[in-house]
Amino acid sequence: MRKKLIILFISVSIVFQLHAQLEPGAGKWRTWFITSGRDYRLPPPPTGKQEIAQVIAHQKSIDSAGWQQIQYWSAGAPGYRWQNMMSGLWAIDTGYYGALANMLLSVAIYDATIAAWDTKYAYKTLRPYATDSRIKILVPKPESPSYPCEYSVAAGVAVTIISRFYPKLTDSVTRMAHQLMQSRIAAGVAFPVDTRAGFELGKKIAEKEIEHTKDFVVKKVWDRKMPEGERVWKGKNPMFPLAGQNKTVVLDSSSQFRPGPPPDFAKDMDELKNHKQNFRSMSNALYYASNSFWDELLHKKIFEYNLAMNPPRAARLYAITAIGNYDGFVACWDAKYAYWGIRPNQYDTTYKSLVPSPPFPGYPSGHAALSSVTAELYSYFFPAEQKWFRQKAKDVAEMKSEGVDHNPVFSKQVQSGNHTSNQKKQAPVFIKD
Q: How far apart are CA 372 and CA 335, in angstroms?
């Protein structure tokens, strides 16, 4: 009996240790735009009673606003709030580097998280609540060492990336990062030194990755030459005609999987005109045309699969999805301006689409292409739901049969008057149609 109890105790101890050691090998995972996480290992953290006293002081001074900050920033993975912010930011105010900014945020948070994990398990610093019994833990218990703070790492990346591409928001995001860092200290899960070191690490890696991708965007000016013919897209100011020449991340080039030329659209035009719309079909089309369905779905799946408590894996999901969408966009735009495929309302001027037509060629459909990319990525990470993801990709693609000639980014630009001809600059912007 005693022997069985000893075995049981050892087994429970092993399980506890495995649970407490959250992804101890993540510091060795491959990175994207930095050489390795080890190359960014931080020096050992200082020790002293002063850090403990500061955490206790923070906890004693928590007011209602402080509680709100703790709850707000503890929701989701370290990058969740910043990812959500960028999703809305670049879709409305795309500028010239929207897609690059979106991709960089996700990739830099991942690379910086891997670097943080290398440092965490090099020193294995205890969290404040595990150091002094006077310190209470006020958020879900993180099962990783304290130094550096992973949430502050993501904040350092976000402030650097957003400030670089959207400089008017610098003060706002800097203030948000400060609130985040204070909330982690007050929650009893990070020492002040953890937050400072994490923020600086994230900032350093983000700056490195901005430099690494400085030549991703094509710099030359479009010569304004457009093909002639009855079956080519016609418009005065095509959006981002050189975006297909931007550098890709995973693809060998933007033309690696370029589809063949479009067929005569006569049959497709007949199908569009003969299709009978109903309330359900129009609602479905408008929903997918005006919502960031796939972005929101990824947040949801990370929550459902409890990956929000696993920062390295959550960051990996965000990063790979962002890279797939970025490369998919560049490849799609390569094909669009290789063929200049005409849109339905130009092919048949009597045809009226459900929503306005965007100012760029229609073939191939960005909605269909990028939904397929995303569905396959999600199917890889969440294989039990593969059938459902692929069906959703088909649903998005088939909204074209409702006569939708639209993308959410363009519609917001039209409403805000931000559409430009891009005569002087060309850059990738993630547009979904």
A: 16
3-state secondary structure of 251: coil
Give the lowest-confidence range in 214-218, 293-297, 365-369, 412-416.
412-416
The total of other beta-carbon atoms located within 10 Å of residue 414's CB is 13
Contact 358, 410 (CB under 8 A): yes
Reported as a pLDDT band with limits 50, 70 and 90, residue 16 is very low
Place of tokens 């760029």: 360
Query: What tokens appear for 26 in the block?
Result: 């993540």
Q: The tokens of 141 are what? A: 């218990």
Identify each DSSP E strand in 169-315 by its residue range: none
Structure tokens belonging to residue 95: 């500028």
Q: Which residue has the higher pLDDT, 143 or 288?
A: 143
Q: In the structure, what pLDDT confidence band is assigned to residue 92 with cuts at 50, 70 and 90?
A: low
The answer to whether 108 and 209 are in contact (CB under 8 A) is yes
Name the DSSP letter for residue 316.
H
pTM > 0.70? yes
Lowest mean pLDDT among 6-20, 162-176, 237-251: 6-20
The pLDDT value given to residue 15 = 33
Query: From its phi and psi, is residue 240 left (phi > 0), alpha (psi between -120 and 50) or beta?
Result: left
Contact 355, 289 (CB under 8 A): yes
Structure tokens at 11: 């087994």
- In terms of Cα–Cα distance, which of 421, 374, 32, 364 is closest to 235? 421
- Residue identified by tokens 């099962």 is 143
Q: Is 48 left (phi over 0), alpha (psi -120 to 50) or beta?
A: left
d(CA 185, CA 371): 40
- 106 pLDDT above the threshold of 90: yes
Distance between CA 213 and CA 299 in Å, rounded? 26
